[in-house]
Amino acid sequence: MTDTLQAIGQALSNDVRTLTTISHNVANISTPGYRGVRTVPQFDAAAGLSEVTVLRDGGLAQTARPMDLALQGSGFFTVERDGQVLLVRAGAFRVDRDGWLVTAAGDRVLGTSGPIAMPAGDVRVDADGALRQGTQALGQLQLVTVADAAQLRPAGAGAFAFDGALVPAQAQVVQGALERSNVEPADEMLRLMETTRHAESVQRAMSMYDKAMDVGINKLGEN
């Protein structure tokens, strides 16, 4: 009896969690650089689901703003927040009043030698992440990738924390553009329909189980 109730309860909990990720994905369809999230079963069925970040590329939106940078290919920009290195995909960067290249949230963008100081004037960003002003090299964006997307943890403002090893990425930088969200509306609609139908079948199973228990208890009371 207990095992059956636990199985039904776990199934409903999994469906609710999946619906939550779908809702969050749909809400961020227009968020530049947003990475969609999927729920996947854990090896231990009793443990429920885990969430995995989808790393496929999103489309490009041309902006013509020189500090808007998009990545194409597997990888992340690196930023510093409160002494911690975080990973971001959204490249809507700007220069703060102290002359540092920062994200929209104010995190300093990291190069291979640390935070990047920006001079006045136009700056060119090459496909490999090199920053130049005329013939002067200004630095090199630190672009990294991760081996296991399941270890990425949301850190707020579109950033991710990662405890594993970071390796240089082979991604290309596109200046004057932003990467769109990688959420596919059709995929999310299909997942919504499948999850909703599964939740309805679990609810029917719960109702049948409840009726069976009620009949059993009534028969015991008659004896």
UniProtKB/TrEMBL annotation:
InterPro entries: Flagellar_FlgE/F/G (IPR020013), Flg_bb/hook_C_dom (IPR010930), FlgE/F/G-like (IPR037925), LlgE_F_G-like_D1 (IPR053967)
Positions of the Flagellar basal-body/hook protein C-terminal domain: 174-217
Domain Flagellar hook protein FlgE/F/G-like D1 per the UniProt entry, residue ranges: 70-130
Source species, domain of life: Bacteria
Localization annotation: Bacterial flagellum basal body
Nucleus found in the keyword field: no
UniProt similarity note: Belongs to the flagella basal body rod proteins family.
Protein name (database record): Flagellar hook-basal body protein
Organism of origin: Lysobacter korlensis
